[in-house]
Amino acid sequence: MKLTLPLFLVVTSLTAAALAGPMSFDFKDPKGVNNAVFKLDAPLEAINGSASGITGSVQFDPANPAATKGKIVVASASLNVSNPMMKEHLHSAKWLDVAKFPAIVFDAKELKNVKTSGDVTTADAVGSLTLHGVTKNITVPVKLTYLKDKLEKRIPNMKGDLLVIRSNFAVKRSDYGIIPGQMEEKVSDEIELTLSIAGAALR
Predict the structure, then answer these.
(1) How far is CA 124 from CA 21, 78, 114, 169, in A?
(2) DSSP 66-102
(3) Percent of the chain with pLDDT over 70
(4) What's residue 34's pLDDT?
(5) Which domain holds residue 185?
(6) Is residue 2 part of a domain?
(7) Fewest Cβ atoms nearer than 10 Å: which of 19, 130, 176, 194?
(8) What are 106's strand-pairing partners?
(9) Number of independent structural domains in the chain
């Protein structure tokens, strides 16, 4: 009996660990709050806008945040600026060509320089960004906050966990073939991006 109980506890612990593993967090937000903000600060004009058409899935294991992988997708047509004519130009074939390239995709393949304190993990996400039909390997800083059993506080009557992702980084439109070298006095080559999204894992 003395041997049986410890053995039972070990088997139970191993079974629980095996069942835990990574969870899949869905970033299609039913509240429509998830967003990506972009800014182009050229000498003559500063352009600010946002995109709300965000979907994607991230595999996250609270016991092993370093193993995080996933894909975030932004619908190109959801990019918006306050000036209607400027928005029309942005979506046109000359610029983003949203009809031909409907999605902007960041595919995170691994995390480096991972640091975890409590429920918060900071790291460098290594992956690829596909924009305007061009894919480039990039590394961006990310902050992941795991909120166990907090989904219902955000969306009533839905039980589950939340994964909040924050990131700030910059890319160059010239790297993605968006009329490189042109109109840089009005439209900056550098695009500053801020990502603020929350994904849900239902129970």
Answers:
(1) 22, 27, 7, 11
(2) GG-EEEEEEEGGGEEESSHHHHHHHHSTTTT-TTT--
(3) 90
(4) 96
(5) 21-202
(6) no
(7) 19
(8) 72, 129
(9) 1
